[in-house]
Amino acid sequence: MPAASQSGTAVKAEAPPDSEPTLTRGTDIVVAPPRLQGLPATAPTSFNFEDAPVQDVVNVLMRDMLHADFVIHPPISGTVTLATRTDVSGDQAVFLLESALQANGLQMVRDPRGVYHVGKPEVLKGIGPAVRQMEPGKVLPPGTGAIVVPLQYIGANEMAAILKPMLPPDALLRVDPVRNLLVLGGSRSQAEGWLDLVRTFDVNLLKGMSVGIFPLKYVTTKEVEAALKLLSAGTGGSAGASAAPAQAAPGSVATALASGGLGASSNSMAAAASSGVNETLPLFGAIRILTVERLNAVMVVTPRAAYLEEAKNWIDSLDKPTNNSGEPQLFVYPVQNGNAKHLASVVGGLFGGTSSGSTGNTGVAPGLTSGSAGTTLGNNSSFGNSSGYGGTGGLGSTSSSSLGTNRSTMASANSGANVTGYNLGPNVRLIADSANNAILVYASRADFNKIETALKRLDVPATQVLIEATIVEVSLTGNLSYGLQWAFNNGLSNGRTGAGVLTTNSTGVISSVAQGFTYTLKNSAGSIQAVLNALASETNVNVLSSPSLMVVDNYTANIMVGTQQPISGGSSVTSTGVVTSNVQYKDTGVNLMVTPSVNSGNMVTMEINQNVTDVASVPDEVTKQYPFTQRQVTSKVAVRSGETIVLGGMIRENKSNSSAGLPILSSLPVVGALFGAKNVGNSRTELLVVITPKVVRSDQEIRDVSDELRDKMRGLSLSNIQLGAGSSSNRVPTTSSVSTLK
Length: 742
Hints:
Layout: H1 3-6, E1 48-53, H2 54-65, E2 70-72, E3 79-83, H3 90-103, E4 107-110, E5 116-119, E6 132-133, E7 144-150, H4 156-163, E8 172-176, E9 181-187, H5 188-201, H6 205-208, E10 210-215, H7 221-233, H8 239-247, H9 253-259, H10 266-276, E11 288-292, E12 297-302, H11 305-318, E13 329-334, H12 340-350, E14 354-355, E15 373-377, E16 388-389, E17 395-396, E18 419-425, E19 428-433, E20 438-443, H13 445-458, E21 464-475, H14 484-489, H15 492-495, E22 519-523, H16 527-538, E23 541-545, E24 548-552, E25 557-573, E26 579-598, E27 603-615, E28 628-640, E29 644-661, E30 676-696, H17 699-714
Parallel strand pairs: 2-5, 6-7
Antiparallel strand pairs: 1-3, 4-5, 7-9, 8-9, 10-12, 11-12, 13-20, 14-18, 15-28, 16-17, 18-19, 19-20, 21-23, 21-24, 21-30, 22-29, 25-26, 26-27, 27-28, 29-30
């Protein structure tokens, strides 16, 4: 243990190294530039020598034409034939001279001072030749001797291996891998051919290479490396390479490739690769495969970009999950159409999961209790109720209820946690992320496949319902004095009939407050519209509201049309004598709440809560305040999509007594009637709720519904809407939206 630690002295932590790379750029100069340059520029000229002595040709060209210093080392002999068709430069003339000398067994060497020596090679051995250097874009100086060849991109050893088969035995003088250069020996005519070969291979190899890095998700780098090497072996490789696939045991990489997947372990695959894959593979030089263990990736280097696409296709085919892998992984299922929390609760219940988080409300509307129907005046009376079946299958059920104690519950969003988790088994967890509307599953691939199949079947577009409702108030006069059910049963409007059934389990059919009862009527042939049109010709028909609502299946639609009526809530007197009045507001008007539920056969079950609240015209004698008249129906009915259902039987009766006459005289017995008049008024109205649901499943149906509503709004007139032929008293006020009765 260090002494500093034993003595209790704090050891200062070393600062982490700088993560940024440090670059120190050099000059790229590894050899000094040559001291001597080429021949001086001279005027182009032409010449023609035929069987001329070598010495005479050297004298004419070097002295008279090039004006260069030269020495002739005897003995030299032989004749030369040189001829040009046009004028040539001095450098071209020397090149022709060097070729002619070489044909006669002679050389021309340039010493460090720039003097040219001509003679036999063995004679010129004692002369130290000037060092020449290959420079980009420049001509190599004439003469025979050492040539320094700096390399830009290719390695010196690699270039030497390429040149060796083409060089004389003594032409390669040195290979310098440190400076990355070659030293060659020979004449310029020889060297220029070698330098052309160097320029061919000395290119930016990295720039020309195509490199692909492929991260792996499910398999290891060793598995993919072994598979790709076997693929690159093909059928034209070496004996070992071609025999390896044939000898591969079941479960090896060859078997995995044949079956389209990787079922073998990395050890067996690596063994198969090492036994039959070597550098004699047909594509070994064209494709280099390197593994990056830290990144769990495979790097493919190739001089052909097309090979990268092929390698990618093979790697994608190999890098696939296997269902028999028991390793748990994290999967994310983005919900497309539904609600993540709701889907998670359904799947969790399907697979017997236990909740491990706050579940919250799924947003599905709860089931409503049995409906109640009645008319209440003030706050101290309620109606007897009944239930009935429509003649064509409509169902309405009711139960006794006091005012305000039985209202349908709306589906409301829960403000609980945004994440709900379920434990579906060992190493299987499911979490609903409400914020991102996604479901996270931590399980093996096999378990996730089962969960994903269930999610895809449940995650479908939500069914919607277009609810077209019309709330109508009809005055009961003449034949209608007992209610509209008799109108439907007795066949108004040219014999069109409906059906309404009265229950027998109710203690009182007609209450003491209002004579009437509730009933449910369903019709799909349009007779309801005909009956209402006939009613409009005989009595007053007042449309209170005609809303059209689009709501998602199993959710509650609510519309409120009306005003808030102020109510005196009492007064108080402060210590200083100031009187303070308390005013409350009560909603009045029409309130409709509908919760539809659709099955696969387009049967729509609706939980309906209809409430109409009015202010009475006569104040209460005790409180001196205007009481409220409330008519409410809560029911659950079933009807086919496009058919119409009618809820009725809510009858209200208004009685009024008034007198006018001379004071005192009009109150006298017997003769008082001569001095005044008494008016006794009695009016009865019935409330009808006409509802037509239409199931909307596809996007095209939604667009059709929207277009239909827009067309209705365009055709809406500011004038009154007449339901049937009759006098002006039969017209009803225009509403915010119009629905066609069917």
